[in-house]
Amino acid sequence: MSAKHERKVGKPATAKAAHDYAGIDRVMHEKARLSILIALLSRPQGALFPELKELCALTDGNLNRHLAVLHEATLIEVWKSQAGPRSKTRVQLTEVGRRQFLAYLAELERVIRDARVDAPAPERRRRNSVGGDAGWVPA
Amino acid sequence: MSAKHERKVGKPATAKAAHDYAGIDRVMHEKARLSILIALLSRPQGALFPELKELCALTDGNLNRHLAVLHEATLIEVWKSQAGPRSKTRVQLTEVGRRQFLAYLAELERVIRDARVDAPAPERRRRNSVGGDAGWVPA
DNA sequence: CCCTCAAACTTTGCATTGTAGAGTGATCGG
DNA sequence: CCGATCACTCTACAATGCAAAGTTTGAGGG
Question: pTM for the whole thing?
Answer without folding.
Answer: 0.82
